[in-house]
Amino acid sequence: MDCSHVFEFKFRRLIVVFTLFSAFLLVSLGVKAQEDATQKVEEAHVETTEKKKFEIGKFALHHIADSHSWHVIGETYIGLPIILFNDGKLITFNDSDFHHDDDAKVVVEKGGQRFVKMHEKIYLASPTANEHGQYVTLNEKLHAENKRPLDISLTKNTCTLLISIVLLLVVFISVANSYKKRKGMSPKGLQSWLEPIILFVRDDIAKPNLGHKHERFMPYLLTVFFFIWFNNMLGLVPFLPGGANLTGNIAVTMVLAIMTFGMTIFNGNKHYWKHIFWMPGVPVPMKIFLMPLELIGIFTKPIALMIRLFANITAGHILVLALISLIFVFNSYWVTAASIPFAMFIGAIELMVAFIQAFIFTILSALFIGMAVEEHH
Amino acid sequence: MITGSIAAVGAGLAAIGAGLGIGRIGGSAMDGIARQPEAAAKIQTAMLIAAAFVEAVALFAVVVALV
């Protein structure tokens, strides 16, 4: 990409230099102030800081995990429906019945059964509370040992999944309609935004890997590409329609990987299977040696797909959250000057990663399917 | 006295490995593009795929370190 035109005018150059300078100034001021502040804090209460220590890991993992309620702003939450199946009975209630309790202290009684929520998991409540007022029995690792009902609730991730399905359907049905209406004419509106991307998937992903068979697999590749891309972008929106970490959920990426796996094994021709079970062109002992390796290879490919998408998106979210929580670790307003621009910079990179990961998942799917359907040469 | 988890060391080592790997891939791709600018698109695609493989290994390590 050619960005040199940005520096063409003297005026713009001045603005750029000034911005960089002030940013540097703010950062260095912030660091200094924060150093002073922490020194003072350390001197003032050496003992209390130990207890109130902010835990980045816990905070970040809590925020990227699935949840039964949807945080709007401040203390406002939208309770999502909880659907449980236990002892042959279907029990439904709303998460707001727990009154934001996540420590098994509030018991909800429905249909003759009692439930508590602890760390976003629903447990069957114990008859009496323990010494901390929690209606669960804890083991030595402070994990609840109570029985859990089958939880098929509409959680935050499930809701985002439904929202993204609606979004994808609205976008693509309208584009498909305008293709019907404007046949032979130049694309317009949403159509002209999506056409280059669809062509990119066809010409850069499907054709090089699948050859003349690409048309059969285009629907799958386009679906996977746009599903991952849209959901990656929804995950980057910090407020309501987004906010859930759908593609950073290993169950979602596992289903996507299983679909690619299924496409590969069901479309595999006899050459593909022959290369796995009886590799041509090598001596017999080697054939026997290669067979288990190739067999494992079938499974490691989709597993790598699953972990790659999950870990990339999760790592990005943790990075942004960690940078923002630096403010609370150092307990100083001045850190904001450094951590917010950094978080924004990482956010911009994440926007790129959202696209690249969708691209990588799709191109590797095409590659694996291409290996399975390749003609003998 | 240093406190903390040994997993952090593992994550750091993984980052070094991935950094070296992606650095080499990026550098070689730059070389390739400089020699043959008309093949830039193809080289970029191949570079991204290779980088994804390297990155995946690092991310495996990060996941293991997290767990």
Explain briefly what this protein structure is.
The complex is a heterodimer of chains A (377) and B (67). Chain A has 377 residues and is mainly alpha-helical. Chain A has 10 helices and 8 strands.
Structure notes:
- The complex is a heterodimer of chains A (377) and B (67).
- With 377 residues, chain A is mainly alpha-helical.
- Helices cover 61% and strands 10% of the residues of chain A.
- Chain A has helices at residues 10-44, 48-51, 56-64, 156-181, 190-210, 214-236, 250-267, 270-277, 284-330, 335-373; strands spanning 69-73, 76-79, 81-86, 89-94, 108-110, 113-118, 121-124, 150-151.
- In chain A, helix 1 crosses helix 10.
- The longest helix of chain A is centred in the C-terminal third of the chain and has 47 residues, at 284-330.
- Residues 1-9 and 28-51 of chain A have low confidence and may be disordered.
- Chain B has helices spanning 7-35, 40-66.
- In chain B, helix 1 packs antiparallel against helix 2 (40-66).
- The longest helix of chain B has 29 residues, at 7-35.
- Chain B starts with 6 loop residues before the first helix and ends with a helix.
- The A-B interface holds A 204, 208, 304, 307-308, 310-312, 315, 356, 359-360, 363-364, 367 and B 41, 45, 48-49, 52, 55-56, 59-60, 62-63.
Overall SS class of chain B: mainly alpha
CATH topology of chain B: F1FO ATP Synthase
Q: How many helix segments of chain B?
A: 2
The CATH superfamily name of chain B is F1F0 ATP synthase subunit C
Number of beta-strand segments of chain A: 8
Give the SSE order of chain B as H and E letters. HH
Give the CA-CA distance, first to last residue of chain A. 39 Å
Low-confidence stretches of chain B: none
Tally of helical segments of chain A: 10
